[in-house]
Amino acid sequence: KSYVLCTLAFTCVTFVAGALAFWGPLFTQMGVKVQPNPNVNVDNVAFVFGAIAMTAGLIGVPLGSILGQKLRIKIPYADPVVCGIGLLFSVPFLLGAIILAGLDSIASYVVVFFGQIFLNLNWAVVTDIVLYITIPTRRSSAEAFQILFAHALGDAGSPYLIGVVADAFKPYIVPPNMTTTTTTAVYPFITTTPTSVLFNTSVLGFDNLTATLAAPEDHFITTTTVLPDPDNDYVEFKSKQYAMFLCCIVNVLGAVFFFWNACYITKDKEQCDMVIAGSLEREEREAGRTTRTNSSSSSSSGVSVSSHMSEEESEEAQQAQNLLV
């Protein structure tokens, strides 16, 4: 159970990491374009975002490993808890970075930096979890399968999924100052006045223009027609912004899997330690049995050699006696 839950949680981590790596720089550039007074150069966004991601990884990965090792002494199930708390703490920072991208790019950089630090707390810890809940002869296979599933179901498809969700939002996003207003007249059926006869003829297909001019003011309806432009910078940014909120949801789901993993991690580690201890005992017994067998065979061979040498010596002594006689 610990292995399955850890793999599912790590898949959520790679999903978010892949989406941020692919869409993060482009999304930040879109945010700069829609800002009324941008405070960064749009051409440097990719470089700055990459530097932030690299620095956050250099800090977050060793920090997660240190926290896991220190807390594991007092709390046996500390490793998945550290990972889960890291994912939960990253959610408000990522949420703030997504919202601030269209308002203040520098503030968005600062917030996403801390969000990625918390997101990177679990990389080394997850590897440690897999190693100590798996017996030594299966550890390499366990790591390989976890990497396969985590990347195949995580960062391999997350950029595409974010793009699909963003395209689905585009028709429903209204850019500023992109509306037109039209006015139409309603023609009621009234048969008591000459004006009403004019309304009836208009309904039946006669002079619409004349009927419109003769209609009372309370029979006009004003309708607003929205004309969205899917290639508008505002539409592009808002659609990606709504789609990027999916990363926060997946982060929460990954934290749930890590906390669920904490319920089984201690028991699974103890079972793995018992299996390893039993294997060592069997190896020691087999090694002792082999040593005793070798010792007994060496002793018997030594006795046979000594007896053979004694017989040869007695024959030589007999021959020497015969020569003397």
TrEMBL record:
It is found in: Membrane. Residues 290-308 have a biased composition (Low complexity). It is a multi-pass membrane protein. The keyword Repeat does not apply. GO terms for cellular component: membrane. It comes from the Eukaryota. This is Uncharacterized protein. Keywords: Membrane, Transmembrane, Transmembrane helix, Transport. Residues 282-325 are annotated as: Disordered. The chain crosses the membrane at residues 45-68, 80-103, 109-133, 242-260. The lineage of its organism: Eukaryota, Metazoa, Ecdysozoa, Arthropoda, Crustacea.
